[in-house]
Amino acid sequence: MVSYKELGLVNTREMFAKAVKGGYAIPAFNFNNMEQLQAIIQAAAETKSPVILQVSKGARNYANQTLLRYMAEGAVEYAKELGWEKPQIVLHLDHGDSFETCKSCVDMGFSSVMIDASALPYEENIALTKKVVDYAHQFDVTVEAELGVLAGVEDEVSAAESHYTKPEEVIDFATRTGCDSLAISIGTSHGAYKFTREQCTLDPKTGRLVPPPLAFDVLHEIEKKLPGFPIVLHGSSSVPQEYVDMINELGGKLPDAVGIPEEQLREASKSAVCKINIDSDSRLAMTAAIRKVFHDKPGEFDPRKYLGPARDEMKKLYMHKIINVLGSDGKA
Ligand SMILES: [Zn+2]
User: Fold this and answer.
1) Taking burial as the number of CB atoms within 10 A of a residue's CB, which of 10, 31, 129, 296 is the most buried?
2) Distance, CA 75 to ligand 1 centroid (Å)?
């Protein structure tokens, strides 16, 4: 058993309280390799933004959970080396699917876990979430729960259609589970293919697909029921069209990939939404940058020569999100 406090990590409690009050959101960036982690920490240190490092079940399988945990510990020291005296870094389990997974993360030094029991019937979601909360709170680890169903595919989480969170359930759910934050469904969706052509409209000027707007009415209803309670948005990549175009022009194939417009995320950040999850966008930035090197320099075979530019591109993306979308710069 190792406490996250010994590793220099923090939980989300104070961070979220400040973000809700201050009208901004904390970025939650997924990572599963060194270049992504370096880019995240460089961006957070340079902008002095609190940051949540997210590890999904898929990432744990891909990179090894022990290695990821030590990487997060290293990230704290790396942030200090970069001149960030008191780094505010959370290590968070994304979409924990069982009590055992959440417990093992708490025991190995995560400062925050998500238990996603949203696919279960309501009462079972409450029971499992409460079990995780009761365990995690003994060690001052914060817990994110989910109510409502998000469409899309993210690692091993997938659902064909979304069901908005029912505002009439949130008080009961938050009270009975004791969770610290709540992921809700208001029209965001996992992955780079968030919406079908039929769900979108076509912008006649650009010929691009325009996704349906987020259900801000549902968000505001939830805010009214639970004033000041931290709300989380999953599936909130914007799928920047410049990366999609780059990838497609350089031999890739990503037809109809569209995301959540950044203006809507900016708007959401000003509300009780205090954590916004971004994963696909950094995958796109990385892929676009690597494709560019392979296109421009077909003779290149030193991974540092394409992973380096990929890292720079991801850092640029993270800084843009922090400064222009979430507004979390200067808050740590
Ligand atoms: Zn998610």
Assistant:
1) 129
2) 23
Residue showing tokens 């945990």: 69
The pLDDT value given to residue 197 = 84
Catalytic residues: 94
Say whether pLDDT at 67 is over 90.
yes
Residue 29 CA to ligand 1 center (angstroms) comes to 11
Helix (H) or strand (E) holding 319: helix 303-320
3-state secondary structure string across 113-156 = EEECCCCCCHHHHHHHHHHHHHHHHCCCCEEEEEECECEEEECC
H-helix or E-strand spanning residue 71: helix 65-81
Q: Which residue has the tokens 């009761």?
A: 134
- Write down the pTM of the prediction: 0.95
Mean pLDDT of 283-303: 98
Give residue for tokens 């796109």.
284
Q: How far is the CA of 198 from the centre of ligand 1 (A)?
A: 23
Q: Is the CB of residue 189 less than 8 Å from the CB of residue 235?
A: yes
Number of alpha carbons in the 13 Å side-chain half-sphere of residue 9: 29
Question: How many angstroms separate the CA atoms of 296 and 191, rounded?
Answer: 28
Q: What separation in Å is there between the alpha carbon of 26 and the centre of ligand 1?
A: 15
- Whether residue 49 is predicted with pLDDT greater than 90 in this model: the reply is yes
Ligand 1 centre from 289 Cα, in Å? 25
Q: Please, which residues have CB within 8 angstroms of residue 307's CB and are 6 or more apart in sequence?
A: 35, 290
* Spatial contact of 34 and 63, defined as CB atoms under 8 Å apart: no
Nearest alpha-carbon partner for 237 in 136, 150, 298: 150
d(C-alpha 167, C-alpha 187), whole Å:
14
193 forms beta bridges with 258
The one-letter code for the residue type at 231 is I
DSSP-assigned beta bridge partners for residue 154: 157
